[in-house]
Amino acid sequence: MAKTAEVSFLDSVSRNFDKAAPHTGLPEGLLQQIKACNSVYQMRFPVKVGKEYEVIEAYRVQHSHHRLPTKGGIRYSQKVNQEEVMALASLMTYKCALVDVPFGGAKGGVKISPRAYTPAQLQAITRRYTTELIRKNFIGPGIDVPAPDYGTGSREMAWILDTYQTFKGGEIDAAGCVTGKPVNQNGIQGRTEATGRGVYYALKEIVSYKEDMDKLGLSTGMEGKTIAIQGLGNVGYYAGIICQEEGGSKIVSVAEYEGAIYSKDGIDIKKLLKFRKKTGSIIGFPGTKDLKQRKKVLEVKCDILIPAALENQIRMDNAHKVKAKIVAEAANGPVTAGAQEVLTKKGVMVIPDMYINAGGVTVSYFEWLKNLSHMRFGRMEKRFDQDKYSNLVSLVERMTGHTIGIKERNMLTKGADEIDLVRSGLEETMITAYGQIRETWKRKKKIEDMRTAAFVCALNKISSDYLALGIFP
To answer: Which residues are catalytic?
Structure first.
């Protein structure tokens, strides 16, 4: 095992693609077209930081134009490089296809550590990066739509929108040039929690199949499941909170930049975040013990392991130490192709990133639709539905001679708000996508793991767009 060389992130994605390709029956030329990155824009631009000028290295990759616009987040990290952005853009293509979101895949990266800059300096970098994208026609509601990723959030997306509008004054659909914006700046309710909530909806659906859980030695349902989380950023935080509060699961271990903690009795994620804000660290949280290294969270005995940090966390040199029954790739590419094979042989169920972290792009799609329609979800039907339900309740009360309390009436007659519709749409998306993956997985006996099945589903959907054009008869 130790003698086998680990491949790069991009090579790992390619290796997974190649593993799935023979199961599709598609022409080799079509497969190579789907696999290739169509456009790679590498840029360097100067930004004044303090009294000096820094030359910033940045990228935007559009992997596939089979659907437009292309879609993908922008990450700020000192580890950003062209290969990483190409790999992430590739995954976005397959992810969008898998959950039936009509976008091509894209990704952006700026090679900086956000911790090293002030908000004013980050704003200058973001605005200059956006300007470069505008100059090369790499951004627009019908061209390429960025979103938050590692190291960025709604603040950066607001700066991008403002910069775009400055250049494109009068463009009626300008708000659709970027998603993940603050709600009061053409954003959408539920976007911040979307990826973490999507992780929960996916897990909830996956563990509902008794046949599959029996093979893992687990009961059905999320209630009582023990979970370890690597990364307490936006994705890991919301996945943990929702699994706890709505699923009844127990978070037994958490890892962050400063270290990792464990408690067999469970860790309250909300209280942990408050503790971290107060002390600057998760270490020393009452009722927990410190683990020797932050990566030890990957080796904790639990039902579900959620790597929600960066890629290449579970590798061939540590995959054999994983004790979880299910590994849910909330981050992009946390399990290498080689590690996937090790885990599969161990009987571990690996839920691929291209499915389980698709909640973000799904709700980004809803935000994009909202921006193009220029109307918030629920505005047309909420009051109508509420009146209709109220009339039905009143009719039942008259016919039965019984009345119900105000609390119960409000619950039964409530019309759907934007957040209700977003969550409902996200849950439906995750359930439907998993049904397609599982059917492929179970139908084709030669497919060993869920990742390969997910790739097969995605490739078949993408190929249908090319075949419809008559390019590949």
So the answer is: 107
